[in-house]
Amino acid sequence: MTVTHLHEPTNPTANLTTISTRRILDLVIAGTSLILLGPILMLVALAIWVESGRPIFFSQVRLGQMGRHFRMYKFRKFHKGSGAIDCPVTIRNDCRMTRLGGFLARAKLDELPQLWNILKGDMSVVGPRPESLDLADCFVGFYRRVLDHKPGIFGPNQVVFRDEALLYPDTLDPQQFYREVLFPLKASIDLAYFPNRTIPSDIGWIIYGVLAVVGLVPARKSQAMLAGIRNGSNSPPPRRGSVPENGSKIQQ
């Protein structure tokens, strides 16, 4: 298992009031969501049990803030005996996926148990996505600063890469493609946003995240968001038709 040393924050004088406000917001959103989504959580758990039995949940140790390890929870979407241990990324038509798991992944319902991680304080509602220990060696040099921030469910990358599984070329090794292409891009986006984030901009990304989950943020809008982040804007940009720098496109 990869051992990750605790990472010292690059901004130890962060505003404690903002941190406290963000934590209160996390507790309110996560607690309210668990109550309101309780029936859906039970239905998903029942559906998994009917289709393939136990376990209902999938858990894995992930990298948290400052490189601390924590156990993250999801609804199980893979067949028994397979999982992220085989490959830390999920690709299109992944053979490990159950029929129900494919639906849960597309609808992002497999992520709902992470509301418990938010209540525990391991995660935040808005933050970089927590990587598995298999990818800990990606956090080198400039990219280690991503670990300054508590991981979350929503954020710029979660909107821009709403359908990440569709981006992997059939001719390349998925893990190599993630390490060499997607991870550097994601880390750069995170570092363009999170050091200058605000509570209002976080709320904006929560709203856009929900809209992306239900399919109301098209590819063109995602490209505009990526361009806006790279240009130094904290909030989701209102303009339309923008594309990422260097002419690259995110296919949704």
Description:
With 252 residues, this protein is mainly α. The protein has one domain (16-247). Helices cover 41% and strands 8% of the residues. The chain has helices at residues 16-36, 38-52, 99-107, 114-120, 156-160, 174-193, 199-213, 219-230; strands spanning 57-63, 69-75, 124-126, 152-154. The protein has a two-stranded antiparallel ribbon with strand order 1-2. The protein has a two-stranded parallel sheet with strand order 3-4. It is globular and about 50 Å long. 31% of the residues are buried.
Topology:
Blueprint lengths: L15 H21 L1 H15 L4 E7 L5 E7 L23 H9 L6 H7 L3 E3 L25 E3 L1 H5 L13 H20 L5 H15 L5 H12 L22
Helix pairs in contact: 1-4
Uncertain residue segments:
237-252
Outline type: globular
Radius of gyration over alpha carbons?
Answer: 18 Å
Question: Structural class, judged by helices and strands?
Answer: mainly alpha
Mean pLDDT: 83
Compute the number of helices: 8
Distance between the termini: 34 Å
Helix share bin: 40-55%
SSE pattern, N- to C-terminal: HHEEHHEEHHHH
Query: What's the number of domains?
Result: 1
Query: How many E strands?
Result: 4
